[in-house]
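Summary for the funding panel

The consortium committed to producing paired sequence-structure records for every protein in the target list. Below we show the first two records in order, beginning with the earlier of the two.
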Amino acid sequence: MVVFPTSKINIGLQITEKRPDGFHNLLSCFYPVGWGDVLELIPADTFAFSASGIPIDGPPEKNLCVRAYNALKADFDLPPVHLHLHKLVPIGAGLGGGSADAAFVLKMVNERFGLGLSVSQLEAYARPIGSDCAFFIQNRPLYCVEKGDVFQEIAVNLAGYHIVLIYPALAISTAEAYAGIQPEQPAVPLDQLLQQPVETWRHTVVNDFEKSLFPRYPVLQEVKETLYELGAVYASMSGSGSTIYGIFAQQPELNGQFSHYTIWQGKLL
C-alpha cells in the first residue's frame, strides 16, 4: 500500500500567549499543498522502518512514522509491517512534512487493517505525536487554534491560484524560532483578516516569526521580496521557517531566480 503525504503552508501565524505547559497558543490557517513524500506499507514477518531520499537524523525508533504505528499497536493487535518512507519534503522547513508522514501512517494503518477509527479518534492519536500532526488527518484548509491542533472551519479557498515554495537550504528548529517570539493578542484576529480579498493580505496577514527570523537570516526576506517582484499577490514564511512561499494569480515565470535553492510549484486545490 502506497500513499503520498502532502505538506502545508501557514497563511498567517499569530502567537497569542505562552501556555502553562510550555507550548504557545496560536492562530493560523493551515492550507495543504502538493509537495509531499512517499510512504509504503508492506506486510512483514517483523516490524521494520526504512527511509530513502533526504537523510533523516535520529534513530528509526524515534521517527514519527514509527511512533504513529506504535500508538495504534498499543491499542490494537496489529500484524508486523515494513514501513518505507521516501523523504522529499525538506526537514525544518515549516511545512509539517514529518507530521504529515505520521498522520498518513495512522490513516493508512486504519484503512489497511480495518480499525474503523473516526476522524476525531485519529486526530486524538495524532495530537501527542506533534502539534501539526492532527491537521493532516482531515488535510484541508482549517483555522487552527490553541497549539495548532484544535480546528475551526474557515472559508478560505485558493483553488486555481499557483504557488511557489522556496526552501533556501536553511533548517530552523522550532526551539530557535520560538526563542525570539514575544506573544501578544492581535488587534484583529487572523480569521477576520482572511475574509478580505487575497490582494489585501500583503498588508495585514503576517507570520509573527518573520519579525525575529528575518533579521537573523536576511536571505528569507530577500526571497519574500523577490516573490513579490515576480508578481505574487501574497508571500510569507510558512510556520517557523524557513520555506518562503508566494501565491500567484497565474503561473509565474521565475526567470532563473532561486536556481540555487530547492523549488516546488503547483496549483492550489
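The next record, for a separate protein in the list, is shown here:
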Amino acid sequence: MRKFGIVLKYELKEYFSSKAFMGITIFMALLGMVLLFLPRFVDMSGFTGVKIVGGETEEKDDGTGEEQDQFLYLDQAGVVREEILEELFPDIAWQTASQEEALKEAVAAQEAEAGFVIVSPTQYKYYVYNKSMTDHNVSMFDQAMKTFYRMDYCEAAGWKLEEISAMYDVPVVMEVEVLNKDSGSNYWYCYALVILVFMLITYYGQMIAVSVTNEKSNRAIEVLVTSTSSNSLLFGKVVAGAVSGVFQMGIILGAILAAYQMNREQWGGMIDRFLDIPAEVLLAFAFFGLGGYLFYAFLYGAMGALVSKTEDVSKSASGLMVVVMIVYFFSLVQLTNIDGTVIKVLSFLPISSYSTMFARIAMGTVAAWEIAVSFLILVLSILGTGFLGAKLYRMGTLRYGNPIKLSTALRDLRRTEN
C-alpha cells in the first residue's frame, strides 16, 4: 500500500503540475461560464426570446421599438388579406411590390428579406436571397394561402368561416401527469452524458497507455519494476488518471451547470434539456461513469505495456478502441428504446453499464436490485481487469522490440502461471 501511495502521489503531481492540464481545465471552465453568462450582457433575444432590461429579464418586445424584417408581396390573384399575414408573421413588416422583377431585384439587393408573388388562389412563388435550414416562411405562407382560399370560398357560398373553423378547431383541454420518468425530456442530457463519458475514457485511457509506454521507451521501467510491484505501478497510474480526469471534467461540468442555473431565466429555460440534470442522475453518472473509466483505464495501461514505442500505442489499443466505439454507438441508438431487451442486457455488462445503466435510471424504470447487481458486477470486473492488467503490465514491461499481441501475451501468461 505504501508503494501504491508513492506511485499515486508522483503521478498526481505530474498531472496537477502540468501547465497544459491546469490551463485547459481553467480555460474550458471559464469559456463555458462566459458563454452561459452572455445573455446578461448581450441582447440575445432573437435566439432566447428573452431580453435584458435594467438587469432583469423581460419577454422580447415586438412593438414599434423593434426593427422588423421586411417582406414584399405581389398579389396577382387579388386574394391577399394583410391582417392574416400580420397575424401569421407578427415580426414582419409587409409591403406591396409593383412588379415581379422589382420584387426580385429588392430581394437580390437584400433590401427585403424575402418576397412572394401570388400567381393564383392556389399558387405562389417564393424569392429569398439565402435560404437557411430554419426557414419556415414557406410553411407559414402555405397556411396563409389556405386561409385566403377558405375565406373567399365561404364568402361565395354564403357561409361563415368563423363558425366552420370553430367546429373543426374545437379546443381540447389536456392534462399530462407523469407518474415516473419523462423519457422525452430526459433524452438529451443522457445523450450528452454518454458522449462525455466516452470522451473521458478515450482521452485519458490513451494518456495512460502513452505514460506506460514512455517509461518503457526510455528504459526507466527497468528501475521501477525492481523497486515496486507491478500492481502498485499500474493501480497507481490508473487511479491517478481517474482522479485527474474526474477533477478536470468535474470542474468543467460543475462550472457549466452552476453558470446555467444562475442564468437559467436569461436563457428562458431553452437548454434545460441538456443542463438541467437531476441530482440522482448525476450521482448515477458519477458512480457508473467512474467505474467504466477505471475498467477501461486498466486495459489501456496493459495495452501500453505491450509496446516499446509511443507511436505503436494506437496500433496496440486499436482493438480496445473498436469495443469502446461499438458500445458508444449501441448506447446512443438504444436511448430511444430505454425499456428494450438490448439496453437491459447492456446495463449489466461491464463494457457498457457505465453508460446504459445511468441512462435507464434517468429515462426508464429500474429496480434497486438491478442497480446494485450491475454496480457489483462492474466493481468485480474492475478488480479482475486491474489484476489481469497488472500481470500483463509486469510481463510486457521488460519485453522490447515489436509490439506484443494481446492473444500472445495472454497465452504466455497462462503458461507462466501453470
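Regarding this second record: The chain has a mean pLDDT of 80. The CA atoms of residues 279 and 285 lie 10 Å apart.
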